[in-house]
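Look over both lines before class:
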Amino acid sequence: MTDNTTVNREPGSHPTDPAFLPLFAAPPTDRPTVRPGRVRGSFSMSPTAGPTPTSSRPRNPTEPDGVDQNMPRIYRHGADIDWGLVTALRGQASDRLSAALGEERGHLRPAAQREHGRAIILELLNNEHDERVGAGQQAWDPAEQDALAKAVDDSLFGLGRLQPLVDDHRVENILIFGCDSVFLELTDGRVIPGPPVANSDQELIDFLVFLASRSEVNARPFSEGQPRLHLRLDGGARLAAAAWVTPRPSVVIRRHRLRRVTLADLVDRGTLTELAASFLSAAVKARRSIVVSGAQGAGKTTLVRALCAEIPQHEIIGTFETEYELHLHELKDQHPYVFPWEARPGSGERTADGSQAGEFTLSQALFDSFRFDLSRQIVGEVRGPEVLAMLKAMESGAGSISTTHAKNAEGAIGKLVTCAMEAGPHITHDYAVRAIAASIDIIVHVHLETTPLADGTAQRSRWVTEILTLTPGEREKGYAVQRVFLAPPGSRQAEPAVLPDEYRELAVWGFVLEEFYGHSEAAS
């Protein structure tokens, strides 16, 4: 959730900033010819393999001044790799690994499986090396050996040609419109061209199918019969893909950079005012149920993480998500007691109740969670029928938090009503309105704005535009709202408006009423 960022709106050109040249720099042309013997028994490929320290590797004279020397080698030498060979070796290594481990594979930790895989990859590379030399071809030099070994390892255990992009701390999102049409959205907001991620669209689809089926815990189907894929990747990134129903395979990988974030951090970034942050902090501590609305990419999940940081540490939290995105269970020092649930899509024929074999829904997870002694049940993102799980969580307890897509805060109510009615004909419009008005206490809307600049770039900014309270109403709408904070036209700060009487109790939790009323009087 970053502010005052710049977006390059010329996707056909590369950035001139030297810091980004390594992603696209041509491979060195002055490399000496080396004819080594066997492939070495170790190479730099690991789940966290990343930049090579500058101090341990001299600068290549062909790279321009200012180039980041800490970029992974595969970024600069990727053009040298025979990706067809990598794909073939990945298939062979996968078959050999499955045969070698057999039933043990399901009981071995991923690190142990990867160690077995490395030995197999080395053996395959040695065999390939011997065949090349025997056929009179030039042997690989050490840099080529390392790049090939890492590429095969990434393809077998990681994200293949996507892995270096996901490992790059400067990349926020990866947008793929086909194997050779790739764009990287950087943490500073710019969008730049990326390298091809496959030799063909079919190769990209094949890799996505392999990736979706590889998980021993939460494998996902991806085929012509099920042409959409939503997957949580190792490290916490989220992958969404579609094929067969789009002209070319389409993929978006979103990285969650701000996992450990507080409301104070967002105040520093200009996302909301200190007074609005104080109100939300008190609302969380007072166990008010909150929905965060906004457009795609507006920073809703980041704001939810910041709200969750206000939950007292002694509380036992349950999170319910279609794919893990909040990652509260990984912040042990901040949230020591978290039970995370993740939905699982089914596959094959449907059972008598209409569900697919192996399917595990958020509603089922929520039902089970009532035996886990939870203080709060947090349903992450609501896009459809999972709204029923959100409502059950809010009706059954207090202090739940969720997100949804909407154009403004009150628009989130209509969106959630639509989602509820999609669950089936048993959900009427009136029931949905009543349930939503009775369950949700506060809606916070985050606005995303992209402003074109004179130099052809653009500036992306995110800020909270309104915070409203929601109660059941007797009027035709069936609900009543009161805007507590609202950003005037042209302003990027949500200013105090009207505080309902029932929210005066937030003073007990640290919200300074005098400051609110002082600001609201000044605003009026």
Observations:
- Residues 262 and 306 are 4 Å apart (CA to CA).
